[in-house]
Amino acid sequence: MAKYLLLKHYRGAPQAVNDVPMDQWTPGEIEDHMKYMSDFATRLETTGEFVDGQALSPQGTFVRYDGEGRPPVTDGPFAETKDLIAGWMVIDVDTYQRALELAGELSAAPGAGGKPIHEWLEVRPFLTAPPTVTE
Amino acid sequence: MDDMLLRELTPAVIGVLVRRGVDFATAEDAVQEALIQAALTWPDRPPSDPKGWLVTVAWRKFLDAHRSEASRRNRERLLDLEPPPGPTETADDTLQLFFLCAHPSLTPASAVALTLRAVGGLTTRQIAQAYLVPEATMAQRISRAKRTVRDVRFDQPGDLATVLRVLYLVFNEGYTGDVDLSAEAIRLTRQLAGTSRSRGTMVADEEIAGLLALMLLHHARRAARTRPDGSLVPLAEQDRSLWNTELIAEGVDILQTALAHDRLGEFQAQAAIAALHADAPRAEETDWVQIVGWYDELLRLTGSPVVQLNRAVAIGEADGPVAGLAALAVVDPDLPRYTAASAYLHEKAGDHSIAARLYADAALSAPNLAERHHLTRQAARISQALRE
Lengths: 135, 388
Known about the structure:
Chain A has 2 helices and 6 strands; from the N terminus they run E-H-E-E-E-E-H-E. By secondary structure, chain A is α+β, with helices and mostly antiparallel strands.
C-alpha cells in the first residue's frame, strides 16, 4: 500500500471545465456536491483506503528566512498569483493507478447544473522508506 | 469498576500528594500506579473508602519509587511527613490543582490539555482524539506542560479568571473523540463550583455559577444545532422541541441565584443572553430589547469588539436592520464574522445583491468548514432568488 495526497486546487491549477463559483450554484447543487464528497470519503473508509482529509482556510502566506536577526520576508513576489488549496485528502491505496482512479472520481463531484465540475486535483505520492531487503 | 468515580477521585488524590510535597509529575505517576492496582484488586475486594484507599496506595507507590533511589535517611524524613490517618479532605487540593493546570505560564492549549489530564482524569489517547492530533504529539504537549509547572508551589491563590477561561475553551472544543468535551467541561465546572463554595470567598463564586449556567444553556440546544449531515442550523431555524428543557431550567435557576448576589461578571451576562434565547418558545418571540440591554452590560464589562459585533446584530433584531448596520459601522471590519453579520443585516434591509456578495466573501474567511458551507449556501440561496 502506498499513500497519496490529493490536493484540491481552487486557483493556480488549470481552469475546471464546469467552472462556476460556488455562490452561483443553487443550494440543492451545493447539497449534492457536499454529499458526493462525504459519500466518497465514507466509501473509502469501508475499503480501508481512507487516511485523513481536512478543509483548508483560503488564507495562506509564503514565508522566507531573510538572514540572521532580520524579520522573515512574507508573501514576496507571488501574492497575487500563488495557488490556493481548498482541502486535501490522504488515501492509502495499492497502486498508483488506483490513486488516479479515485482522484478522477473525486474530480467528478457534481457542481452547477448537477454536472461534474471536472476540477483539477493534484496527486502526490508520499515518500516512503525503501523496503528492507532481508534475503 | 466505576470509571466516572475514578475520574472524580484522581485529581483529589493527586492534590493530596502534591500538598504533601510531591512534585506534580511524580504525583501523577504514583496515582497512575495506584489506579492500575485498583483495576486489579477492586473487582474482587471493593474498598469501603475508595479515595482513602487510593491515597494510601498512591502514597506507598511514591515512597517505593522514592526509596529505590534515595537514602534511608531521606526515606525516614519523608515518612515523618506523613499526616496521621483520618478522614481525607478534597476541596482545597482540587481547587489548587485547577489553578496549577491553568497556570499563566502555560499556553491555553497546554493548560487545556493538562486540565483534562490531571483534573479530568482523561487518558492521553482520549485527549489526543478530541483534538485530532496523534497521541504521541499530545503526550509531548502534556509532559512539556508538566515540566513548565514543575516548580510551581501552592503558596498563593491562583487566578480564577484563567481557570474559567480554560474550562470554557474545553467546553467549546466540542466532541470529536470518544469523550464529550462539552459534558466534561460541565462536570469540571460543577466540581469547581462545589470546591470553591467549601473553600470560602476568595473568588467570585457567582462567575463560576455564571459559566456553569452558560454551558448548560448552550448544551441544552446542542441536539438542534446541527443536521444529521453535520451542517449548521441557525438559532432562528432550530427545532425548539429538541432543546433540553431540564438543562435550560437548571441553567436559568443557577443563573438567577448568581444574579441575586448582584456581582455581575461577563459569564453571568452571557448566560443571561443565552437564557433569553432559551426562553422564547418561537424565534419571533425572542426578547431582543432585553438582549440588547445585556449586551450593553457585557460591553461595559469587557469592552470586547466581539461583543460589539454581536450587539450590532441584536440591535438589528430589536430596532431594525438600519439601526443594526449603524451599530456595525463602528465595529472593526477585520473581526471574524464581521462580513457574515454585515451580510445578514444587508439581507434583512433588502439589499440582496450586496448581501449575496458579502455572504460569498464571508464564506472565504469562515473559521470552520460547517460555517463555510452554511455561508456558501446563504450566498447561493440569494443569488438564485436574484436570478429568478
